[in-house]
Amino acid sequence: MIKYVVKRGGTMHQALNVKLPTTGLYNPLPLPSLGLALTDAKDMYEEQARLHRGALCLTATAGGIAEAGCALDADLAHQAQDALESEVERVSGLASKANLLASMFTSGEHSLAEHLFDQQLLK
Fold this sequence. Notes:
- By secondary structure, this protein is mainly alpha-helical.
- It has helices at residues 2-7, 12-15, 30-55, 74-104, 111-122.
């Protein structure tokens, strides 16, 4: 997406406008960390979906129909569609990993479950 933004006349600052979380959000525990990664992936999906709707001039007020007089950008819509597909895969993968780890936590001691989860990821 960075190459596309720069190609279209944007700047690196626009392409890399990343909001860093506050230091209080850092959590070294694996399950809450997977939850934060899943939340970030869902937010990225929503952003890509907004970009896709904007490229096709679709708005919620228009009932899913393109606005009159809006210039469609088919190339950007195609790029956003590809990004949407990868975000869906990312969200699905993170959700399945979080569910697997949560199901492995059967007692108060999580170190063995975390070890087995790490071994599962390395396969």
